[in-house]
Design a protein that fits this description.
- With 169 residues, the protein is α/β, with parallel strands linked by helices.
- Helices cover 28% and strands 20% of the residues.
- It is built from five helices and seven strands.
- Strand 3 and strand 4 form a beta hairpin.
- Helix 1 packs across helix 2.
- The longest helix is centred in the N-terminal third of the chain and has 15 residues.
- It is globular.
- It starts with 25 loop residues before the first strand and ends with a helix.
- The relative contact order is 0.20.
Length: 169
Amino acid sequence: MINLNISKKIFNDVYYPHLCDYGKRFEVYYGGAGSGKSVFVCQKLLLKACKFKRKILVIRKYGTTLKDSVFQLFIDMLIKWSLYEHCKINLSNYTITLPNGSIILFKGLDDSEKIKSITDITDIWAEECTELSEEEFDQLDLRLRANVPYLQFIVSFNPVSKVNWVYRR
């Protein structure tokens, strides 16, 4: 466990009640640009990874969108929380290893076959999940099967058309 001294003020008031809610397998965060959903999910997952040893998979539809979005978001948060210098950051394969051994993997679904070989995933965050197909979502859900408590699949997206599969699910 990594001890952090973080003020409640850094968290979005709208999402804060869900910060330590680990009991639900699925969590859905949606809102317009600038709503703070991605920052909050990053904070939630980072806090969880500091508290418990985790293997977190952060997904976007295309790998090329990872570097400047969710990967950078985690880097920025590590710097703000004074953890960056204690972590192992691999810029070639987009992984972050925390001092307690928690690992955060960033992958695109460009080649979904590569995802199938990742084992012991404890948490998945599908950023902009409306870009994924329902079949890709179901395949990711099958990968969330580590033998630890609090397995979670978090999805985040902007408001979506009612014809998108995410709206129905």
